[in-house]
């Protein structure tokens, strides 16, 4: 599966334990997304367009209105990256 560089960065952070918090409009559509790493930092690569592409490819999911996290398919699809820890 072809995943862009920005999608790859977001998916990698989600696989490490990050989450995507969202705000909805009164009609139910998602208006704004903010991606947090597991350390609490904000990832600026996560835009609404990147979020929509990850969602349509089923690489992320949300359960019971909680923040979005990486799905099993998303974790399998992410390429290994060096961790700077």
From TrEMBL:
<dbReference type="InterPro" id="IPR018654">
    <property type="entry name" value="YjhX_toxin"/>
</dbReference>
<dbReference type="Pfam" id="PF09857">
    <property type="entry name" value="YjhX_toxin"/>
</dbReference>
<protein>
    <submittedName>
        <fullName>Uncharacterized protein</fullName>
    </submittedName>
</protein>
